[in-house]
Amino acid sequence: MSEHTTSQKPYAVQRTDEEWRAALTPAEYKVLRQAGTEPAFRGEYTDTKTEGVYSCRACGAELFRSDTKFESHCGWPSFYSPLAGDSVEYIEDRSFGMKRVEVRCATCGSHLGHVFEGEGYDTPTDQRYCINSISLRLQPAAEPSTTED
Question: Quick check: is 59 catalytic?
Fold first, then answer.
């Protein structure tokens, strides 16, 4: 049984459970709304190097930029910082007999993954936002237009 602390925050995007189930695939629902975890090394964005913005798959809120993504070799996309301090929220997670910090979308409350500190990665923040690919949608950066005179 999970021991997730629930947020008392009112989210800008709110839907009933039935609306979430209709809007998401069963796998997306399990991760985003039930704090599940996708299998390691199978996610769509684990090894992606495409430049762009990663948004919440449930509500579309912008969460991370590709320039903060790094290779942690943990099996899930890793970022060293969210897009802005208020784009995610942090919830204490005591599931599975450990104390972790869950990361949720601050706009809709969907589960994204967890953040870890002090692991020794060579990043500006010494943090690893370990995020499920299925929680994200990548919007590639626009290609610069080339014009000929």
Answer: no
